[in-house]
Amino acid sequence: MVAAERVAGALGEPSQSDLLAARQTQAMSFVFHIPLVCFGIAFPAMVLFTEGLWLRTGDPVYKALAQRWSKVMLILFAVGVVTGTILSFELGLLWPNFMATFGDVFGVAFALEGFSFFLEAIFIAIYVYGWDRLSPRHHFMVGIPIVITGLAGSLFVISVNAWMNDPTGFDLVGGEVTNVDPWAALFNSDLAFELTHMYLAGYMVAGFLVAGVYARSWLRGDRSPYNRAALIIPLTFAALATPAQLIVGDWTARSVAKDQPVKLASFEGLPKTERGAPFHIGGIYEDGEVKGGIEIPDLLSILADHDTDGKVEGLNSVQPDDRPSAINTVRLSFQAMVFIGTGLAGLAAFYLLVWWRRLRLPRSPWFFRAVVLAGPLALVALICGWITAEVGRQPWIVYELMRTEQAVTDAGGLWVAFALLAAVYLSLLAAVIWLLRRLARTSPEGEAAAPTEGAR
Amino acid sequence: MLPELSLALIIAGLTAYAVLAGADFGAGFWDLTAGGAERGGRVRGMVQRSMSPVWEANHVWLIFVLVLLWTCFPVGFGSIMSTLYVPLFIAAVGIIFRGTAFALRGQAATIGEARVLGALFASSSVLVPFCLGACLGAIAAGQVPVGNAAGDPVTSWLNPTGILVGALAVITGAYLAAVYMAADSARAGLPDLQRAFRVRALGAGIVAGAVAIGGLIVLREDARYLFDGLTSGGGLAFVIASAIAGAATLALVWVGRFDRARFTAAAAVSCVTIGWAFAQSPYLLPESLTLEEAAASDATLVAVLVSGAIGLLVLVPSLYLLYSLTLKGRLDQRFEPLDQRFRPQEAGQARSEE
Ligand code: HDD
Ligand code: HEM
Ligand code: HEM
C-alpha cells in the first residue's frame, strides 16, 4: 500500500510530552457526554409518544408519566449542554493544531450543529415549562422540533467523526490543505452507517435504562397502570431498535473493512493479509499473534466480506508505526459490543414474541431481572463501540493524514487538567444521581392530580 | 468581503451572548450579593424565576461563537485556544458548575442544599465572565501570537487590559441583569423587588460607566493599538453611541420605564462589542494576524454564510417565540422567595409544581 501524503500542521509540529494526558482527557469527556446524548436522541420521542397516548385516550396516567419524564429530560439536557460545551472547548484546548489545519474543512457541520442545539434548547424550554400553560395540541406540537433536532444534532457531530475516519472534501498539495469542499466533507461516505448505528444505540441505551428503573419496581411488586406503562413504552422502543442494530452493525463492519482495513485488522489482531481469516473469541494479542481464545475459522472474512474466502488485510499491510498500539483494547471492546448486542437482541426478540403471541408481558422474574441489567449493558456496548472506533483509528486523528501527536497542544499542565476534570466529572455524576433519586422518591401524584385541561 | 461578513456573524453572536447570557451571569452576581438566606430569599426567588426558561438557549450563543471561529478562522482559533488555555479551562469548569448547580437548585429540598448549590452557582457566575472577558482583553491587547501555545500562559491575560475587560464583563452583566429583573418584577407586580433592582441597576450602571471611562486610560498605556482604534473612526462612533445608550438607560430606570430600559441597556453593551471589532480591524489578532490571513477558504466561508442565513431564518422566529412567551408570562414559574420554599413542607419532600 502506498503511504498517502501527510499533512503539515498549520501551527507547526508540536513537542508535547504528555500526549497521553490529552488523549485520556478527551476520552473521559466523551465517556461522560455520550450517554447523555443517547437521552437527547431517544427521550424526546418516548416522551412525545406518551403524551400522544394521553391526547388520544385521555388517560391521566400517560400525562403524569410524560410530565415526569419531561422533567428528567430537562435535567439530562442541562448536563448534556455543559458537558458538550466542555467538549467544544477541548477541541481547541487539546487539539489546536488539528482545528487550525482542518477546522475549515469539517467546521460547517459544527456550525449547523450549533443551530440545531439552539432549536433544541428553545423548544425543550417551551415544552417543559409549557405544561398546562399551552393548549394540549400546541404543547404536543412544540415537542416535535425536539425530536428532529435530536436527530440533526447527532447527524452533524457524527459527520465530523465520520470525516475523521474518511477524510474527504479537500486536496493536499505539498502538505497544505487546499480546494476545500465543505459539503463533500459533511456528507462523507462513512456518515450513513455511523449515524444509523449511533442513532439506534441511542434508543437502546435510553430505552433499556429507563425500562430498567421500572422493571425494578415491577420486581418489587408495583403493578400499577403507571408502572406498567412506564415499563412497556421504553422497553418497546429499545426492543425494536435492537435487532435492527445487528444488521446495521454488520453494515458498519463491512464498511470499515473497505475504508479502514487496518482498523478492521485490529478488531481481530490479524497479523497478515489472508483469505478465510479466522476470528478468535477471547484470547490475547501478543508478539504479532492471538494467543488463547476460541478460534472460529473464516469468521472475520464473513464479517468483512460476507464470504468465507474473502480477503482481509492484515496489520502487516502498514508499517508497525502506523498500527494501533492498543490492539487488545480494541479487540476486547469490539467483542464486548458484539456479544452484548447479540444478547440484547435475544432478549428483545423474546419480549416481542411474547407480546405478539400472547399480548402480555412475560411472567418470569428472570425476564425483568434481565431488563434491569440490559440498560447498563447497552451503555457498556456504547462506550465499547466508541473505544473500538477511536482507539482503532490510532495513531491517526485524521485517518492516514494526520497523526494524533501532530494535532496536540503545546500547552503545559495537561495532567493537572485531567485530574481536575476527573474530580469535576465525579462530582457531576454524584449530583445527577442524587437528583434523579430525589425525583424518583417523590410520588407522581402531583402530576396526575394536575388539571387535565390547562389551556388558557 | 467574505472574511468581514463572517466576522460580522461572529460579532453578532458574541453580542447576543454578552447581552443575553451576560445578564444570566449578572443574575448570579446579585444572587451572590443578596445577603443571608432570609434577607436574600426574595431576590434569589426572582433570579430563579427569571432565568429558568431561557438560560440554556442563551448559553448556546457561546457554542455558536466557538464553532464559527474555528470554521472561519481556524489558525486564529488554534492560536487563541492554545495560548489562553488557563482562563479558558477555568471558564469551562465554571460553566459546568454554574449550569449544573442552577439546574439542581431548582430541585433542592432543604435550605441547606439550596445554599450550597446557590453559592456554587453564584460564585461561578462571577468567575466565568471574568475569565472570558480576560481572554478578549488578551486578544485585543495583542498578547496572542500566531502559533501553538506561543504566548505566555499567565501574563498574556493577567495584565491590566485583561483584568479590565474581565471586570467590565462582570459589571455589565450585573447591570443588564438588574435592569431586566426590575422589569420582570414590575410586570409580576412585586414593588419591593422592583425597588431593590432599580437601586442595583442605577448603581451598577454608574460603576460600569466609570470603569469603562477609566479603562480608556489603562488601554492607552497597555494596549495602544486598541486605544487608537477606539478613539477614532468607527470605533469612536460606537463608543459614543454606547455612552448615549447607557445614559438613556439610567434615565429610563430613574423614571421607572423598565421595559424600555431593557432595550437601551442591551444597545449600550452591543455598541461596545461592535466598537471593539472596529477598533481592531484589520486584525483578528492585533498586529500579528489580519482577518484576510486568518480566513478559511472562500468555499467554506460561503458555506457558513449560506447555512448561517438559512439557520437564522429558522432560529429567529423560534427565539422570538421563546422570548415572547417568556415576556408574556406564559412560561413563568410561580414567584417564590427561595427561603420560603422550604417552610411550608417538611424537609426531604420536594414541592410539586402548582
Ligand atoms: C448499544 C450499542 C451498540 C451495539 C449493541 C452495537 N454497537 Fe457497534 N458501535 C456502537 C454501538 C453499538 C457505537 C457506540 O455507536 C459506535 C461507535 C462509533 C459508531 O459509529 O458507532 C460503534 C462502532 C462500531 C464499529 C466501528 C465503526 C467505525 O470505526 O467507524 C463497528 C465495526 C461496529 N460498531 C460493529 C458492530 C456489530 C457487528 C455489532 C453487532 C452486534 C454492534 N456493533 C453492536
Ligand atoms: C473532533 C475531534 C476529535 C478528536 C480530536 C478526537 C480524539 C480522540 C482521542 C485522541 C481519543 C483517545 C484515543 C485513545 O485513548 O487512544 C479519543 C477517544 C474517544 N473519542 Fe474521539 N476525537 C474526536 C471526535 C470524536 C467524536 C466526534 C466522537 C463521537 C462522535 C468521538 C468519540 C470518542 C470516544 C467515545 C472516545 C473514548 C474512547 C476511550 O474511552 O478510550 N471522538 N478521541
Ligand atoms: C466532538 C464531539 C462533540 C462535541 C464538540 C459536542 C458538543 C456539544 C455541545 C456544545 C452541546 C451542548 C449544546 C447546547 O448547548 O444545547 C452538546 C449536546 C449534545 N450533543 Fe454533543 N458533542 C460532541 C459529541 C457528540 C456525539 C458523539 C453526539 C451524538 C451522536 C452528540 C450529540 C449531542 C446532542 C444530541 C446534544 C444535545 C444535548 C442533549 O440532548 O443531551 N454530541 N454537544
What does this structure look like?
The complex is a heterodimer of chains A (456) and B (354). Chain A has 456 residues and is mainly α. Chain A has helices at residues 19-57, 60-94, 96-129, 136-165, 182-186, 191-219, 225-259, 261-268, 299-305, 327-358, 365-393, 404-407, 414-441, 445-449, and strands spanning 171-173, 176-178, 274-275, 279-281, 284-286, 289-291, 294-296, 311-312, 396-398, 402-403. In chain A, helix 1 (19-57) packs across helix 6, helix 7 (225-259) crosses helix 8 (261-268) and helix 7 (225-259) packs across helix 10 (327-358). The model of chain A is unreliable at 445-456 (pLDDT under 50). Chain B contains 13 helices and two strands. Mean pLDDT of chain B is 79; it is low at 344-354. In chain B, helix 1 (2-32) packs antiparallel against helix 2. Chain B has a two-stranded antiparallel sheet. With 354 residues, chain B is mainly alpha-helical. The radius of gyration of chain B is 21 Å and the shape is globular. The interface between A and B is large, with 81 and 69 residues. The structure holds CIS-heme D hydroxychlorin gamma-spirolactone (HDD) and protoporphyrin IX containing FE (HEM) (2 copies).
The total count of helices of chain B amounts to 13
Low-confidence stretches of chain B: 344-354
Helical proportion of chain B? over 70%
- The shape of chain A is globular
* % residues in beta strands of chain A: 5-15%
The number of distinct helices of chain A, counting runs of at least 4 residues, comes to 14
Radius of gyration of chain B: 21 Å
